[in-house]
Amino acid sequence: xxxxxxxxxxxxxxxxxILIYVLTKPANVPTAPQNSNxxxxxxxxxxxxxxxxxxxxTHSNVRDDSIDFARMTKTPPHMAKTSADKxxxxxxxxxxxxxxxxxxxxxxxxxxxxxxxxxxxxxRARLLSRILSIDKSTAPPARxxxxxxxxxxxxxxxxxxxxxxxLLATYFNLVVVLSVTDKSVQTVKLLSRLRxxxxxxxxxxxxxxxxxxxxHSITGRVAxxxxxxxxxxxxxxxxxxxxxxxxxxxxxxVYGKGEHGGGSRLGSMLS
Length: 271
Description:
Blueprint: H1 5-28, H2 31-43, H3 49-65, H4 81-85, H5 107-111, H6 114-132, E1 146-152, H7 159-169, E2 173-179, H8 187-195, E3 212-215, H9 218-228, E4 233-236, H10 239-246, E5 252-254
Parallel strand pairs: 1-2, 1-4, 2-3, 4-5
Helix pairs in contact: 9-10
C-alpha cells in the first residue's frame, strides 16, 4: 500500500545523479576537440602558444644582446668621434659596430682633399672589378657590408697588399684573417709586419688591431666566418674554403690560383 522509504531515497538519489551528469557533461565535451585542433595546427606549421612565447623571447633576447653605445660612458676606440659626441644609439650588428659609425667610414673625407678622395674611389672601383671578376655571378656589395679577407702570413709584408686593405677597409666593414702555421709567432709581430714602417699606409683608424685575427688552420677560418654571420663575401687564397663555407651559404672568392711567385697574391691585383 505505501512506498517504502528506502525506495524513495534511491529514486531521489538516482534523479539527482542524472541531473548532475547532464549539467556537467557539456562543459567537458569541448576539451578533447580543442586539443585535437591544436595538434592539427601544429602539424600544419601554425605556431602554438608555446612557440609564440618562445619566438617572443628570442626577439627579446636579440634586443638585449645589442649594445646601445649612447648609454656607455666609454665608446669603442674605432667609433667615429661625431657618432660618440652626438651620442648616437649605434646598435651592434652581428657583434660589430656598423660601418657608418666607424672612423674608417669618414677617414678619407676628413684627411684628404676631394681630388684624392675621387682618385681613391676610382682605384677602389678597379680593385673591386678585378675581385668580383673571380666569380661573374657575384653582385657588387653595398658600402658598409662585412667582408672577410684571409692572407697567408708569409705574404703580409707588401706595400701593394696594404693598399688593397686600405681601399677595402675604407669602404667595407673589413675583417682580416692572417693564416699562420707557426703557432710560436706573436700577434704583435704579425701586426707590425702587416702595417709596415709607414703608419699612414694602413692606419689604426682604418683597420683597428682587433679586426686583424690570427688563425692556425682552415677550420679556424671557417669557424670565424660562421660566427660573424652576415658576411657579404669571403676573399681567401685556399680553394678548400670555397667547399667548406659554400655548404653554409657563404660566398667565397678564391684569389691567386696557381700564383706563387713571391710577394702578395692579393696585392698583385692592383698591379
